[in-house]
Specification:
The structure is a homodimer of 886-residue chains.
Chain A (H helix, E strand, L loop, with lengths): L4 E3 L8 H16 L7 E4 L1 H9 L6 H18 L2 E2 L5 E2 L1 E7 L9 E5 L5 H9 L2 H19 L4 H15 L9 H19 L7 H15 L3 H10 L7 E7 L10 E8 L6 E9 L4 H5 L5 E2 L1 H6 L1 H18 L3 E8 L2 E9 L4 H13 L5 H7 L2 H7 L3 E2 L1 H5 L3 E4 L1 E4 L2 E7 L2 H9 L4 E5 L7 H6 L2 E4 L7 H9 L2 E4 L4 E4 L4 E4 L2 E3 L4 E5 L4 E3 L5 E2 L5 H13 L3 E5 L3 H9 L5 E5 L1 H4 L5 H9 L3 H25 L5 E4 L13 H11 L3 H11 L11 H6 L1 H22 L6 E4 L5 H21 L7 E6 L2 H5 L1 H5 L4 E4 L1 H9 L3 H4 L3 H6 L16 H15 L4 E4 L7 H9 L4 E4 L4 H14 L15
Parallel strand pairs in A: 3-4, 16-17, 17-18, 18-19, 26-27, 26-33, 27-28, 28-29, 29-30, 30-31, 31-32, 32-33
Antiparallel strand pairs in A: 1-2, 2-7, 5-6, 5-7, 8-9, 8-11, 9-10, 11-12, 13-25, 14-24, 15-19, 16-23, 20-21, 21-22, 23-24
Chain lengths: 886, 886
């Protein structure tokens, strides 16, 4: 019989897959003899089984749970539901990867009409017993039975109003008894049956609820954002309750071994006395700093500090721990590697190396590449900041600078951000439902909550700037107004937040880009030492090129020439070319573009300071360059001096049923070779001139897009070489150049052996390759992809994370076939996947030579490439430096 | 040193690849000691070398040509260009595959100002000598130098007018001398240099011209139509001239060993006395029947008959021969397997089997599958024909019935046919430039030319009905009028032609479809005996299904359900479904469609008489079902009782940037599972009812289109199975059914191992697969494909002939992967390639189980499949009969 249930004594920290992160770490701490309340874990396999059985917990699993419960009862000398001294347990989720706040928790399970009396007797505290019972009924109704929780809150409020109370602590035991009665009758009204008195029923239903919560919408969104597979499932931890709300010698808290915002070494955390579990995290009361515990209970504080240090040394990483003090006794409820800001992650990694705890490779692997993004986010311009006026302060919950207009709800933030507005989300406090809105915002400001509140934890994870717990802030969501230090602001007012200081400005402040220096620079150097993939950038302007070089790009992997054509002073020439009727007319128009293109390429080469650049020839269909509305056509016809009807008919003639699959890419060069001629001349002359001026040795790289057949490439290449060779000879130069192609059409992938005979490099255009391989266009897929996610047909967006099974297999086929006929061929990627860590890992394993990504993704790519090579070492193909050329 | 030149004595009939068809057969006849004028062949490899050398004949090849010439001169005792008794040669093209009229010929080569005198002296016939010279200059100027030939014709006409002559024979030797002088000075004017007097220069230039003609536009079109690869090249045959125009004891003719129109055994042909080579073929004079030769010269006739019989026995096929009689002596200039009509091809093949000359397999392989098409073309309805009035008669040049309006030029025929008109092309005579127009026409009518004229030969090859040599016909192309037996007709008048009788009607006559009986039936039985592929049909209506069954279809491989939705009485329901806002509304609309769909399927099953049918679920994007113009939307909104704005916004919301890659296929079933539910119910209930009514055993086959991931198929299949199993259980039936998928997206091909785990059959949708694999849409490719043909990047239309290298390799990958995880899976094709012989050959070699094609392609597919299996035998996978089911 398969084992589905493990007592904490039976597990250990390596069993994350089976027991989930929380369960494995509880087991590990138990093994380290730390004060962990006893309990057991129902495995992730039981979760999978639950789904396979049609959302049922089968008899075998139930009987294993009950057997474990019986052992626990024996050990504790208490029984679940007992009317004298009842055992109470918590039921908590715990997946392999931490998903904070995404899934459900039920506390105080085991209470019923009888055992509540037992608890009252045993503790001598009827108020505590009935408060625990009403909390349990409330949680069970909400989480397990999915009833409307607001009704329960209203019942509570009504009693308080009736009695004239201002806060919960004023409620007496009798009040709470009354509330329990009202709760139970509301439960019956909703559920059609009494609140379950049988503790085993409570336990199984609660376990089911946790399993079910794995599939709730916000968990699905979180997983998609974090590449967590749906089929992992969650474990369930069933653990003896300890109470932080048993009076003033009880309490509960959260602490980190290092500062999760800055990385500074030293205990960092918060606690609340006389509070239960989720109170600290939920941000409803503002907690005390952990250091105050030293004064309050030095002995316990020392014990806690020792435990935290042991844990950090044991896990060799910064720990995030939850603890409870029950009547003066410390209990550890959780430890895990703590989430941290990017700055903190860098500092911690480097400090741990310096402290001799880990080596460089480990340090490189500790940083989530996606986090680096936040370091590249702009900071406030120091000059602009001088003139700015601080209006208030909150807690510096997640660093960075944010500037946007005020949004009052997550939905509003999403909608306005989609419409192109920059928004700052302002909330009383945030909840897990707000995730998408937080992600869409420049920054988050909350009135309530500490450094470990929901808003703070989630914002740090996302790398979004956050200021939390601002006492001066009053949020009036209904009227779309906030009051900040006495002044009122609305949806059209600007806020600027400094997430590193907590300072709030009620104005728009200019921001400046970040630089790769200090800890960041050190870690990037280590990454470069260990990676095998080269990293280039996709850039079309000297500004982007220079930015990418600052971020460590080794050159340009994709320079899209069409972006240069769209500029207002150039588009007339390209339009003239489009309406040309003869080759001569086209050449005449192209001749006007030549000096501009050449100038562009020179500026690009100079910005790259001698690094190589792959220039992709004109790619988009020509209709993208002409207007389509009659009034625009009338105007253009006037400007061009041709009749409206003629221009209109040319434009109508350019219309395509499926522009993605139309007359574009190298097909343009096949029909209009003069375009390729002009572009070749521009590239080659630019390189010759820059080489002469600077004494550099640039080897131009020309890339032919959308090739599907070797003969297409051969034809266009013959035009390129004819022009290039002539210019080089006329200049008496010995400059060499390369001609390669994009592999972005399935046919190119499966015939790559033939194509490689004519190409010096392949660059996988994974955007188009994904579209063609899946047979759906990115523009249109939005209509059905949401339903594909809902139905678990796709778990991730194939345009964000490369589809290894389909697109990946074409990449492998093309690589193998290409290298078979041309062993020297260089293979790279220039689609957007080149900047996605899990895709980079695939490209590394597939044996490619380089990735090219947008400038702001370059550090991420360097780091992800290093992590891949540390995990899957392969021969380093070339010394980091120039990838192509001599 | 490679051998590029072969004397006729050095070759034989098996050397077609090297010597071309004409050269190999001249060599073979020489070996058979037949009276062939001596000569030699410059090989196809020399042609390839010519193109590789940048259209130059290199020194090595030149010296081999001159060496062969020297031997020939020695043997003949004459020298090229000799002023006493000159050798004259013809220079003729000859490719591997016969391409009649496509390439160039030069006669009388070796004449110059001196040798013309030698010829005059030696023959004692100065008129003949100067006529030969002026013909040579004319041909050389036109064919070799590509000068405007009309100027030469005008010079000739001017002299005739000046002298008051009516025809060429009236020209005297002196007239011809004057013409030669005028021709030479026109040559010099055009060319800037004198007409070449050096015979070796003439010879090399003429050889180059033949090589060059391989690449002329009409040859390229012909090759594309006939799947002849460009890289084959042509050989050049250089042969001693014999003259059919040396007076009344000379002549020239063309003959077949059997009647190429009917297949009847017996000599069939035409000749002209005192005429040169091309005169018979060109159709300028109307020739005599070959039987008349018997009376004119019985001895020579007997010699000729014996030769023709020897040749037919030798080649075991009907021969098409050219001969010349020079002063009473017979010379054979060519033999080849004769082109024939489809009827003739069948009769000849079956007669040859009956005569014991060949076996059934050989007979099956002798028929060009594409030719069968003509047998399936309609014939005149016998009742309608009774009331029709014959207005004139011509020669029955190519059988079949044609009915259309009069087109006066090839371009006009192409344009009007494209616009949807049925046209009959009426010409004085046709020329190779007319090919496309002939192909676009229902039938061809010419005033001049015999049964072997250009029009007749080409029309028979194409299977287009043709009546030639109609003496009553006057064509006035300029005024777009014809006169037929005294009456005038214009572009809007109907003509009906009977290609089997030569009768012409000036009215529209109803036609009826053909049947597979007689010789056709016999050959199809033989084909079925030898094929391994099953043949199904693509049909959406009972009429098409019944037609396909008549043509031998084993069932339906693709029934497109959307065609049923487009019918006027149904489209309101589908539109109601589209504008529905909820699942309930959609189900309500679909409920209206259910009885209609079920009725359709029942009718289809009944038409198939128990044969299996694969039903493809709804495929096109929903916007295809709604109008897009405002006025149509206004009307529809009124009919549907919803506001215009609402309907308009729904329709705008359906717009897609790339509909080919949009929300269609199984993506519709993922977003709207209720569509799949309705369709499943319709299919399953129809099959159950028909099985009950007829006592049949139909096993319904449901095909899910556009699958790209196994999870998509799994999801839709779960819906199908849920509905189907429920209905079957409710009916207490034990009927089984199958669920399969189309493989038409590249991702499906490369992940076919996974998909095969959920599919009972794959049907390759090669139309979409070709589009996605090449990354171009059929609708848009028209803009650049012509340039791809011009530049030899593609030689054939990948939508007509499957691209083996790219699309084919995906088909192979998918087949291998699919069979690896599901060895029982059935593999087929339902794209249009299923009706293309060379594609069928690929599908056979790739190991597929079946092809499905349009009803009129079924016989073709049966034959092509048999030919493939005879050439590449493989295990026959199942007895011909039911492919699927129990």
């Amino acid at each position: 019989m398969k084992k589905f249930v493990y007592a904490f004594e039976e597990g250990n920290g390596t069993m994350r897959e089976l027991l989930g992160g929380k369960g494995a770490n509880l087991a590990e701490m138990t093994g380290l003899k730390m004060p962990v309340p006893p309990g057991f874990t129902v495995s992730t396999e039981a979760c999978t089984q639950y789904y396979n059985d049609g959302r049922k917990i089968n008899d075998e699993i139930q009987s294993q749970i009950f057997a474990a419960l019986e052992k626990l009862e024996k050990r504790m000398g208490k029984k679940l539901g007992n009317e004298d001294d009842p055992l109470l347990v918590s039921v908590r989720s715990g997946a392999r990867a931490s998903m904070p706040g995404m899934m459900d928790t039920i506390l105080n399970l085991g209470l019923n009409d009888k055992s509540v009396e037992g608890l009252a007797k045993k503790t001598g505290n009827p108020r505590f017993a009935y408060d625990s019972y009403r909390r349990f009924i409330q949680m069970f109704s909400d989480v397990v039975m999915e009833q409307d929780k607001s009704v329960y809150e209203r019942i509570l409020d009504d009693i308080k109003t009736k009695k004239g109370y201002k806060s919960d602590p004023e409620l007496t035991a009798d009040d709470l008894k009354e509330i329990v009665t009202l709760f139970k009758s509301n439960y019956k009204k909703n559920q059609g049956e009494d609140f379950p008195q049988e503790p085993k029923t409570q336990l199984i239903e609660a376990t089911k609820a946790v399993f079910r919560s794995w599939d709730n919408p916000r968990a699905n969104v979180y997983r998609r954002m974090n590449d967590i597979p749906y089929d992992w499932g969650t474990a369930v931890n069933i653990q003896c309750m300890v109470f932080g709300n048993k009076g003033e010698t009880s309490g509960t808290g959260v602490a980190f071994t290092r500062n999760p915002a800055t990385g500074e070494k030293g205990l960092f955390g918060e606690y609340l006395m006389n509070a239960q579990g989720e109170d600290v995290v939920a941000g409803i009361r503002t907690p005390k700093h952990i250091n105050e515990l030293k004064e309050q209970n030095p002995e316990l504080y020392d014990q806690f500090v020792e435990i935290t240090q042991t844990l950090e040394k044991h896990y060799k990483d910064m720990q995030d721990m939850e603890f409870t003090i029950e009547e003066g006794k410390l209990y550890m409820l959780q430890t895990r590697n703590g989430k941290r800001t990017a700055q903190a992650a860098l500092k911690i990694a480097i400090d741990l190396v310096n402290e001799g705890m880990i080596d460089e490779k480990k340090a490189v692997c500790m940083i989530d590449p996606k986090q680096l993004d936040t370091l590249l986010h702009p900071q406030f311009d120091s000059k602009a900041l001088k003139n700015a006026t601080e209006v208030s302060r909150g807690l510096p919950a997640s660093p960075g600078a944010a500037c946007g207009k005020i949004a009052f709800s997550a939905d509003e933030a999403v909608a306005r951000a989609k419409a192109g507005e920059k928004v700052v989300l302002v909330r009383l406090e945030t909840s897990p439902e707000d995730i998408e809105g937080m992600n869409a915002s420049e920054g988050i400001l909350t009135a309530r909550g500490g450094m470990t509140s929901h808003a703070a934890v989630v914002a740090r994870g996302m790398g979004v700037c956050c200021v939390s717990g601002c006492p001066d802030l009053i949020v009036d969501e209904d009227n779309k107004k906030i009051t900040l230090a006495g002044k009122t602001y609305g949806a059209n007012d600007w806020l600027s937040l400094d997430g590193s200081t907590g300072i709030i400005y009620a104005e728009q402040i200019k921001t400046v880009p970040a630089e790769v220096t200090g800890d960041f620079g050190t870690l990037m150097q280590w990454a470069d030492k260990y990676r095998a993939l080269h990293v280039r950038t996709n850039a079309d302007t000297p500004r982007d090129a220079a930015q990418a070089v600052k971020f460590g790009a080794e050159g340009i992997g994709l320079c899209r020439t069409e972006h240069m054509f769209f500029e207002p002073q150039r588009i007339p020439a390209i339009r003239e070319m489009i309406v040309s009727k003869t080759e001569e007319e086209r050449e005449h128009a192209l001749a006007k573009l030549l000096p501009m293109q050449k100038g562009d390429f020179k500026a690009m080469y100079i910005a790259l300071e001698g690094r190589p650049m792959t220039v992709r020839f004109l790619d988009p269909p020509l209709h993208e360059f002409v207007p389509h509305e009659d009034w625009e056509i009338i105007e253009l016809a006037k400007n061009m001096g041709i009749p409206f009807e003629e221009l209109k008919s040319t434009i109508v003639g350019l219309h395509e049923a499926n522009p993605m699959m139309g007359h574009r890419g190298c097909r343009l060069s096949v029909t209009y070779p003069e375009i390729a001629k002009m572009q070749t001349r521009a590239v080659i002359e630019a390189a010759l001139e820059v080489n002469a001026e600077k004494g550099w040795n640039i080897v131009p790289e020309i890339m032919i897009p959308l090739v599907g057949d070797v003969k297409e490439l051969k034809y266009v290449k013959s035009i390129v070489c004819e022009v290039a060779d002539k210019i080089i000879a006329e200049n008496k130069s010995n400059m060499t150049y390369m001609v390669g192609t994009m592999i972005e059409i399935p046919r190119a992938a499966v015939t790559a052996d033939r194509i490689a005979e004519e190409a010096q490099f392949f660059s996988f255009g994974t955007n188009d390759l994904t579209q063609m391989t899946f047979g759906f266009s990115r523009d249109d897929a939005g209509k059905f992809l949401p339903e594909y996610y809902n139905k678990k047909i796709y778990e991730s967006d194939p345009f964000a994370k490369v589809d290894e099974e389909g697109v990946g297999s074409l990449i492998k086929i093309a690589s193998e076939k290409g290298r078979a006929t041309n062993p020297k061929i260089k293979l790279g990627v220039c689609g957007e996947h080149g900047g996605d860590p899990s895709s980079i890992d695939f490209f590394h394993r597939a044996g490619l030579d380089y990735v090219s990504c947008s400038p702001f993704r370059v550090p991420l790519a360097r780091l992800a490439a290093a992590q891949s090579n540390i995990k899957h070492p392969r021969t380093i193909l070339g010394k980091i430096g120039k990838l192509f050329g001599k």
